Amino acid sequence: MSTIKSFEELEVWQRARKFVLKIYNLTKSFSKDELYGLTYQIRRAAVSIGSNISEGFDRRSDKEFSNFLAIARGSIAEV
Questions:
Q1: CATH superfamily of 8-78
Q2: What pTM value is reported for the model?
Q3: If you average pLDDT over residues 3-13, what whole number do you get?
Q4: How far is CA 78 from each of CA 40, 42, 49, 74, rounded to the nearest angstrom?
Q5: CB 56 within 8 A of CB 69
Q6: Which of 5, 42, 44, 59 is exposed most, by the fewest CB atoms within 10 A?
Q7: Pfam families annotated for this entry (predicted)?
Q8: Spatial distance between the Cα atoms of 3 and 19, rounded to a whole number of angstroms
Q9: Does 63 score more than 90 pLDDT?
């Protein structure tokens, strides 16, 4: 079995990336009045999911990775 060498190989990160694209497409239809409110908040939280997965992976410690996954999960709940 091969070892994962990059966060980009993680299926969860790949799904998070696709999710961001879907969120950006969805929020395009939101009112322009919400651009700096709801739209910004949802987009920021969506981007945070993959960012935390990648940052946790690069820490090279299972405990730290687990903590960053928990943060990513919180971002999912925020979206």
A1: 23S rRNA-intervening sequence (1.20.1440.60)
A2: 0.89
A3: 95
A4: 12, 7, 10, 6
A5: yes
A6: 5
A7: 23S_rRNA_IVP
A8: 25
A9: yes
Asked if 75 and 45 count as a contact pair (C-beta separation under 8 A), the reply is yes
Burial per residue of 13-33, b for 16 or more beta-carbon CB atoms within 10 angstroms, e otherwise: beebbebbeebeeebeeeeee
Helix pair 62-78, 40-58: axis angle to 10 deg: 170
Parse the chain into domains and list their residue ranges: 8-78
Instruction: Report the pLDDT value the prediction gives residue 2, as an integer from 0 to 100.
Output: 67
The CA distance from 44 to 2, in Å, is 33
Per DSSP, helices labelled H in 5-39 are: 11-27
Residue 36: the pLDDT is 81
